[in-house]
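Support reply, case 0932

Customer input (verbatim):
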Amino acid sequence: MDEERIPIITSVAVPGEDRPGLEEPIVVSAEETPIALKIRDALLSEPGLGGADLEVRIRGELVTLSGTARTEDQKDLALNIAGRFVGRDRVTDEIRTDEQISYFCET
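Our regenerated output:
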């Protein structure tokens, strides 16, 4: 049986007077479901995620975050934000960090 395709919406938070502390854009793509959009909005409002490019997907009661974050701390922040909505134990981590990508490119 084919899975129903859920549209994905991509949003960007850009630095400006209305976003104090945000130094780099945040890009978040999320499925068009109520919980995914709430998580997207929370991620976009967090200045500590500047430079991140994330995706939010929902499967049943599980949330999957994927994409890239600058650091492990930034990745943990994104996972914890999503966990506020569904419980941290229901968030699957598929986020890569720039630190991991640099390591793989150097070896």
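We compared this against your earlier run and they match. Two observations from our side: The two ends are 41 Å apart (CA to CA). The longest strand covers residues 62-69. Please reopen the case if you see a mismatch on your end.
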